[in-house]
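How a chain folds remains the central question behind the approach discussed here. For one protein, we set the task of working out the structure tokens from the amino acid sequence alone. The sequence in question and its structure tokens are set out directly beneath this paragraph.

_____
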Amino acid sequence: MTLLSPVKPARRPRIGLYSIGLRAYWEQFPGLRERLIAYGAFIERKLSAWGDVFNFGLVDDEGSGRRAGEWLNERNVDLVFGHSATYSTSSTVLPVHQICRAPAVFLNLQPAARINYDATTTGEWLAHCGACPVPELANALNRAGIAFRVVNGLLGLDETPAISLADEATADRPEAIRAWREIGEWARAASVPRTLRHARFGFLGNTYSGMLDMYSDFTMIQAQTGLHVEVLEMCDLDRMLRDVTEADVREKLDEVRAMFAISGDSPSDPIARKPTDEQLDWSCRVAAAQEKLVRAYDLDALSYYYHGAPGGEYEKLQGGFIVGHSLLTARGIPCSGEGDLKTAVAMKICDILGTGGSFSEIVVVDYDDGTILLGHDGPFHIAISDGKPILRGMGLYHGKQGTGVSVEAKVRRGPVTTLNVTQTGDGRLKLISSEAESTDGPIMRIGNTQTPVRFRQHPDDYMSAWFAEAPTHHCAMSIGHNASLFRKVGELMGIRHVTL
């Protein structure tokens, strides 16, 4: 096991593929059918980097369209790519998507940037006219009430087939790179609904009292995402704690020392001090119990909060949460504090896509640097950290009860995207994305996660736009500029997406 190996890997999407053609052409133009099938095989190989691909082959008349729809349904695909390989009538293609209702993306990928005008024959032209039927397909699907998307560009072959009269080595052309980036985003996005439909989110304790933006109906969450919410009690975790061995504690301590830097006393904050051996031991003991809980209940994510009676055993137990929940978040089990289930969904979406997803909220604005500090008192996604996160012993958790060890860290410098999952007044989930840059600006040394983020607008203008969308006050911070990717997730899940 590596330190960041996932406890439960995300599920690969099941991707459907077929090629569009017209049966009348095959006898008229020898070699055209085989040429288009080879293009389809190339697309299949490229798509296999992102999911399990099921290639039906050519759909070239109404009957094969119906068979393709049934065949794709039998394979339970999450997404269907239709390669517009040459002209075909819309009556050939419409049955595929009337029978198989998985989201549809048409690939208008021309093999060459330019045909050989002097030498081109009709058969050669037909291998390049994939754009020709797309308006007809769009009209038919629109009138049938079937949503679709189109990716335009070049096919991106590495070499020209022997049959071609034009230069088809277009892998390095920007039109191919852009098209395949878009296709890759659709394929990656399809892993999110598949994973969530099979996911179990633990809800441990309760939601922080009075945080009205975070209260959600578990049935609504399952109805719109497919995930199951498993309600857990502190006594479930306490039961796991009783089974923790000294060997388990030593193993967790080894993980902690590998992943974190152990701090001295904060030079500025008297409540943030060097963790004591007792605090580290307790955090590792609780962390071992937290992993046992995740495995016992087969969890994919966890949302938690428990204040406990002052001086009670459960107060002490929750005081050890942050280190273990950071370890779990780093290994594909996102853990969101304060009982914020919707932000656990946002973090899980980011994690499925391999972009991190660290628990954040507005900390403070730096008007001199033009940045907004985003962070929290934990947990943190170690996999996207700028260097080793620091562990600090906390004399108290602000606004909460108990003491323990907390994580001080920042997300690595570079492009980032925040993802907020909120709930509208009509009970619908909504995604809000904001692309920005994480800077090397200073942070406080108070045992909290903090990342200075420069958005594309002045902080005041950005906050006005963000607040107008009525967000949940927490969000997930991911690395990379991912708004286009998150928008596709929203489309595939039927959830509205807003980019700021």
Q: What stands out?
A: Confidence is low (pLDDT under 50) at residues 395-401. The two ends are 39 Å apart (CA to CA). The longest helix spans residues 174-197.
